[in-house]
Design a protein that fits this description.
Length: about 110
């Protein structure tokens, strides 16, 4: 990937948002690479965007009210490849992506 992730105001660039919306996701490694990349753009970083400590194959996204984080989530939701591989749980400002059938009962929302 050879695009700018953030603009001068610390918001995701349109190129980055289009990238996460359109990237093809084939397997767990692709999911982890995408979420690790998103973590770099996430306002407040790994404190608010991280792999679950309780569920092996889940990733937590806390927007913290930052509109730039909401924009990233909107583009992740628009990625049809990601939606086909993951179950999404949302409760207010917390969104959880889980990607294995046995782990879709997420108790920590």
């Amino acid at each position: 990937m050879n695009i700018e992730i953030l603009d001068n105001d610390s918001y995701s660039t349109e190129d980055f948002l289009n990238y996460i919306k359109n990237i093809k996701i084939d397997n767990e490694n692709d999911i982890l690479q995408l979420f690790s990349l998103v973590q770099r753009a996430w306002h407040w970083g790994s404190d608010f965007c991280h792999r679950s400590k309780n569920i092996e194959k889940a990733w937590y996204f806390y927007t913290g009210g930052w509109s730039g984080n909401e924009s990233i989530l909107s583009h992740l939701r628009a990625n049809i490849f990601l939606q086909a591989k993951c179950k999404v749980f949302k409760n207010n400002a917390i969104t959880i992506y889980a990607w294995e059938e046995g782990n879709l009962n997420v108790p920590y929302i």
